[in-house]
Each structure stands twice: as C-alpha cells, then as structure tokens.
Amino acid sequence: MSKRGWALFVVLAVIWGLPYFFIRIAVRDVEPATLVFLRTAFAALILLPFAIHRRQLRRLLDDWFAVLGYTILEITVPWFLLSTAEQKLTSSLAGLMVATVPIFGAVIAWGLGHERPDARRISGLFLGFAGVVVLAGVGAKGSNLVSMGEIVLCAVGYATAPMIVSRRLAEVPSFEVVTASMVVTALIYLPFGLTHLPSRFHAEPAESIATLSAVCTVLAFLVFFALIKEVGPTRSVVVTYVNPAVALLLGVVILGEPFTVGIAIGFPLIIAGSVLATWSEATPVRPHVMHGPAESALGGEPTR
Description:
Layout: H1 3-15, H2 19-26, H3 32-54, H4 64-85, H5 91-98, H6 101-111, H7 119-139, H8 145-168, H9 174-195, H10 203-231, H11 233-236, H12 243-253, H13 261-277
Helix pairs in contact: 1-10, 2-5, 2-10, 3-4, 3-9, 3-10, 4-8, 4-9, 5-12, 6-8, 6-13, 7-13
C-alpha cells in the first residue's frame, strides 16, 4: 500500500471508530429514523452548496441507478439498522459486529467470481463467523439477538457498497455521489424525521448528531472514496480491522460498557478471520481495472 493509502487508512479507521459511541448517546433521546434524517440532512446542507458550485451533479444522471443502489446499501438501510440496534446493544458490541464487513466482502467477491478463494481464505471465513457466534452466545448477555442480526445486515450492506463504487462509479465525481446519497436518504426519512423530533434536545445528543454529520459522515465519506480509489474495494473495507478497537475503547472507558469474555474471545477471532479471508496473495480471477484518472474525493485532481 502507498504512503497515501496508509494515511487514508489510519484517518478513516479512527473516524469510523467514533460513530458507534455517538449513536449510542444520540438514540437515548432521538428515534433511529429521526437520527438518520438529522445526520444526513445536516451533512447534505454542508455538501450541497459546494456540489452545486462544482456544477457536476448532472454527471450522476447517467449512473443514477448505481448511485441509488450505493446509497441504499451504504447509508439508507444500514444507518437505520445500526441506530435501531444500538437502542439495545452496547456501542462496543455494535462496533465489533461491524468488524465482519471484510468477511462478507470476501464472500461476495467470491460469489461474483472476482476472486478465487483458497484454503486459507475459507478457513478465515469459518474463523470469523466462529467469532460472531461467540459474541452472540457469550458477549451479548441481556442483548437482543434480533439487534445483532440487524448489525449483520448492516455489515452486508457495507461490504457490498464499495463494489458498486469500484465497478460502476469509478469515473463519477465522488463528492457528488456522497452529496446525492445524503440528499436522497434525508428525503426518504424526511416525513418521519420532521414529525418525530424530540421536544427538547439535550446537549450530549445534539453534540453527538453534529459530530456524526460533520466528522463521521462528511469527512469520513470523502476519505472513504479516496481510499477505495487508492487501494480497491476489497482492501478498503479492511479498515474495519481497526475501527472496532476504537469503538471498544470509547465504549468501555467513557460509557462504562462491560468488557465481557465473549468480546475477549470473539473479537480476536473475527479479526483473524477477516485477515485470512481477505489475504492479498490469493490470485484474482478477473481483476477490475479502472480506466482513466481517478478523481480525488476532495476535488478534481487525479489520485495517481
């Protein structure tokens, strides 16, 4: 990986370790659908003026179906599922469950014939899912298994969306894709969001929503797109090796969440399984080649 790739990786790993902590705080006062609405609406308000000024939103029209698919799989559905699950699950457990993204990414890539699995990768798959079983059976005392299922579905969406970016949106300005995704999701949740606003915002939930919008959404997605174009979709989701550790640290140290035996055993199994399942030495069957210069997520300059 290049120096630029490593820099993007580290920044994103830290930023995407934060949402679980802030979501857990926000859902104490705000309904999940309202939280998704506020998070995406504020982000859209930040991004839309710049997108209009750049005059490239029209370029999305030719790929509107791919943009919509990406939006649904990466934002619209996963963020609602994650917010709903964190009403019952701890932020640290939610973050650890999302660490399964690379495993699902590998399974999807194998199913589509993009990469050829070997014995090492298959063993990683079983090891990672064993970690999930341990978390569900030991680390989720008092938690709702339905909520854990919601996190799994969220992870599947996160694993699939980067492939849409790589295969269908590689030549589309990423700034505009992020902006359109925020606008579309905000509009979808608008009716519920406006009618279910809390009567009073306390300081911590309000600050959490602001941070989720500006840092964990706007900044994170710009870095994420840049990382996908720098290292590819499969490697980009490996960022989930690190951000669950950030989520775990914040949850245990600041929110006082328990560090259970299930977490102590299940988390290393998931990480080890993810590493093996996405092992880079496996030979791809038909690697995707991105034609033309890839645009930076922050502007129109080529990344290479």
